[in-house]
Amino acid sequence: MELEVATATIDAGEASEAPLFYHGVPQLKIFGDGSIKGNSEANPCRFLDNPQVSKFQFGVDNNQVFEGSDSYNGPARLADFTVLSLGMKDAFSVPILELAAISQGLETAIRLIDSNQPPISALTIFSDAVQVLNRIKKGFIPKTSLDKQSLWDQMANPLVQTIIWQSHYLEDHGCTVNLAWNPRCCALGPAIADAAAGAFKTWSEDETKCDLWSQQNLHPESRDGILDKWSEEMKELIRCYKG
After folding, report:
1. What was the pLDDT predicted at 203?
2. How far apart are CA 241 and CA 243, in angstroms?
3. Measured between alpha carbons, how far is 24 from 11 in angstroms, rounded to an integer?
4. Confidence of residue 141 (pLDDT cuts 50, 70, 90)
5. Which residues make Cβ contacts (< 8 Å) with residue 174, sequence separation at least 6?
6. Averaged over 172-183, what is the pLDDT?
7. What distance in Å separates the CA atoms of residue 16 and residue 182, rounded to the nearest whole number?
8. What number is the average pLDDT over the span 111-118?
């Protein structure tokens, strides 16, 4: 995992501009981030008005429409990205949400691979949370020794197991999976992810009443049950500590 700031920044910048195919092989680049609502009021999150996003979009026409054989060779635009977000009513910590963002990135890749069924593909998921990437590297901790671990390690365990399952599924379907670190808001992709992580600040009251996870962008029949199982295990861990 590249932790040198300059090199990681270049990598994230190149990934933000990367083509969707390389020698005919699909290249999936996903930027994930998470945030949690504190006691202070936050300004509404507007993607193009977000200063971290706008600095990468100076002079870029995000609404340009192309016709015929016209092509666009300029820098990546906000319009080039698909932005997905999900919400959680109860959160243990920001790192848990960072883990959830990685899991949902993997789930998004699974949907794309299942829908298009390419023989081979490559996926890179970027995160600005070193602590979370290191926890994934640590792997799943068996329940027999879980009580000897830190609270963070215990709380992260169900999601780490989910991430391992998802990664194995993708690998079994010809997709090479890589996790990479990026400095916060170092390129357009990470900046959009950072803004998306705060999108809940503009959600309506009804949207914030959802039970744990919200996948508003998906049709009800398309919403997965993986995180429902994770929520059950998380609730059980919380009950044990409160008890």
Report:
1. 63
2. 5
3. 21
4. confident
5. 113, 118, 119, 120, 121
6. 96
7. 12
8. 92
Shortest CA distance to 158 belongs to which of 174, 146, 172, 171? Answer: 146
For range 90-94, the mean pLDDT: 69
Please give the order of strands across the beta sheet that includes 175-181.
21-22, 25-31, 121-127, 175-181
Tell me which DSSP letter residue 27 carries. Answer: E
CB under 8 Å to 32, separation ≥6 — which residues? Answer: 98, 101, 102, 104, 105, 125, 126, 127, 193
How far CA 48 is from CA of 23, 56, 58, 147, in Å, comes to 33, 10, 10, 45
Contact present, 215 and 86 (Cβ < 8 Å)? yes
Per-residue pLDDT at 119? 96
Amino acid at residue number 156? A
Mean pLDDT of the chain: 78
User: Residue 223 has which token pair?
Assistant: 């919403």
